[in-house]
Amino acid sequence: MITVGLVDDQELMREGLALIIDAQPDMRVVGQASDGADAVRLARVVHPDVILMDVRMPRMTGVDATRRIVADQPAAKVLVLTMFDLDEYVYDALRAGASGFLLKDAPRGAVVHAIRAVVAGDILLAPEVTRRLVERYAGPPTGKVRAPEALRSVTDREREVLFGVVRGCTNAEIAHALTIGEATVKTHVAHLLTKLGLRDRLQLVIFAYETGLVTPGAAPVRPA
After folding, report:
1. What is the distance between the alpha carbons of residues 208 and 212, in angstroms, rounded to a whole number?
2. pLDDT digits (tens, 9 = 90+) for 190-221
3. Three-state DSSP class for 47?
4. Cα dihedral 134, 217, 86, 48 sign
5. Which residues contact 154 (CB under 8 A, 6 or more apart)?
6. N or C end of the chain: which has fewer CB within 10 A?
């Protein structure tokens, strides 16, 4: 059973999400909070598998709450709720440790899919949306880039898988393109996360942009 916590300062939003989630045979809402401070307490007491987190709330923002929750519970899965174009700190939420983001006007099927994707450790949105977010907010390399050292132990095949992740491909699509098994792709992704010290696939994408492996609007390029 996937347990879910709901955090939003709009009660109607929380109740609507609860109806969708509780209607699923494998999901259950185990707690609700109306601001970031209460979200931190909810996470500590209930430990839900996934927390749906609003960004703009009184007392404490969703970004600050996400940062505290992940610092306290590194394995926590936070799914940020956003209007996308209105929330300019979504990227900060991802850097704070969020596992992904969900548009507030998403259809109910997308909500359910997003929760399952976060639990599975997958990217949970359409590739073009993920790229749009990262390209908009990821800056150029800062000079403190750890790419050369961190990538030294990454194999050529793992780099090919990394570029597939950056393009927004699913494991199945990467497997088909590289003519390998889907289980093998999952293994390569796991190795990449371990070698680069990252949490999930979204952070792999962010890493690629921030270290210069990819630049906004351009295809991934192999490092020399």
Report:
1. 6
2. 999 999 888 777 778 878 877 777 665 554 44
3. coil
4. negative
5. 162, 192, 195, 196
6. C
